[in-house]
Amino acid sequence: MSVTSLGLESGEAAPLPRHRSRMERRMMTRGLMFAAPASLLLLGIYILPVIILAGFSVTDYQLGALSFRFIGLDNFAQAFSDPVFMRALWNTVLYAALVIPFGVGLGLGAALLVNARKRSRSFWEVAYFLPVTATLVAMATVWQFLLHPSIGPVNAAIKWLGFEPVSFLSDPALLIPSMAIIGIWQVLGFNMVLFLAGLTAIPQDLYEAARLDGARSPMDRFLTVTWPMLGPTTLFVVVTTSISAFKVFETVAVLTKGRFGSETLLFALYLEGFEYSNTGYAAALTLIFLAIVLVLSIGQTVHMDRKVHY
């Protein structure tokens, strides 16, 4: 009786694995169908262009040419021996070194000030965020007028103070710092909004506990509560600001057009690819640019993630 029952039980249990595997295959098929549109978009918009870009980077192809030849890594070797590219790389690094700390620090400071407002908070949020909504090309034109050596208000104020006018957009020593000021002004509002969101998410109970533990001054509460709790937000802000800084293009294209040694990576890439039609060389520069941004983003994320409290 027990053998028969065991046989029946085993006979009844046998179809279950097949039934489960059929259900699993059906669910997997449905999951693939849902993921297919996003996967195709990812393939068509990101992966395939990078593969094609890598293919062009090892050729001497020029836009419109009927033939081209394989030259290996010559384009990459040419880039690091090209004084224009090396100057553009240095200018971009200098620009990012100014925009990243000041853009993040001033964004945090503005968020702390606005967060302390009660009645006028909405006004200051809109006022700081307006530069983000404006196109940088149009705003670069406004900055070109503001920094004009003869008719600009900035130099008018400098003359009124008794100093000589300053050529912000023609002096090679001042070009990158002047454009960095515009870049900081552009990212300040966006970073402020991100930090405001992080400040709003901090529980007020932590501040009360910090006061009871002896953190009486606002600076003590900032160092013990606010700054550690803003770790994830700061990580995101630093990475996005770094990417934006390395992507500087509009201010150079509008204000200087690369004159006076003011080229940046994206502007040098644009000149090679669209002005000089050196598609193969421009593709190599693009891969170098992507590699720099990728290494910078991953390095910042790995380094800062160890200090972040989630």
Condensed summary:
This is Sugar ABC transporter permease. With 310 residues, the protein is an all-alpha fold. It has helices at residues 2-13, 15-57, 74-81, 83-115, 121-133, 136-146, 153-160, 172-200, 204-212, 218-229, 231-246, 250-256, 265-275, 279-305.
The percentage helix is: over 70%
Low-confidence stretches: 1-11
Question: Hey, roughly how much beta strand do the residues contain?
Answer: under 5%
* Helix run count: 14
SSE string, helices as H and strands as E: HHHHHHHHHHHHHH
The number of strands is: 0
Q: What is the terminal separation in angstroms?
A: 61 Å
State the oligomer.
Answer: single chain
What is the strand and helix layout of this fold?
Elements: H1 2-13, H2 15-57, H3 74-81, H4 83-115, H5 121-133, H6 136-146, H7 153-160, H8 172-200, H9 204-212, H10 218-229, H11 231-246, H12 250-256, H13 265-275, H14 279-305
